[in-house]
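Internal tracking record. Fields below are filled automatically when a chain is submitted to the structure queue. Please do not edit lines marked as system-generated. If the sequence contains nonstandard residues, flag them in the REMARKS field before resubmitting.
Queue: standard
Priority: normal
Entity type: single polypeptide chain
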Amino acid sequence: MGTVFAICIAYLFGSISSAILICRLMQLPDPRTQGSHNPGATNVLRLGSQKAAVLTLLGDTLKGLLPVLAAKWLGFSETTIALVALAAFLGHLFPLFFHFKGGKGVATTLGCLLALSWPAGLCWMGTWLLIALCSRYSSLASLIASALAPLYLWYATQSLAYVIAVTFMSVFLVLRHRRNIRQLLAGTESRLGK
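SYSTEM-GENERATED OUTPUT FOLLOWS
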């Protein structure tokens, strides 16, 4: 019963859309109606507010970080902790409070990784920064870092449950970036700073 409750709370926590709420509070356009129409930090940045983008990034990261840390602190098994991480991530992608239309899950994946294993999370961040600085493509950096996340996590924890959960996240993340992948291949993807 405790496991089911923890998973449900993680999903509901993940369903809180940082981008939408912060844009409302800062009187910015709804990110679902502007730019890439994605309620995430990169699209909020496109709306012209670095502060709102940073707050969105922080909020989305905490949605993955806090439920997993809480599950660890409460002494749940690795399998339950992995399911809590996956539930928070799916809450971000398919939020109950916003008609099941959420973001792509990049920052929430990072939060989950940092909570599951901070070295794996730091490796993810390092990979993202390296690719983003070299290519200026946020989407490409997210795709490569997330593809490598299960390897980082296995090396850091040897936990099969954690690796399976993060592999599912990586697959969903790729699926959510289908449009970006097409634009990258066509050479029409927006670069950071543009």
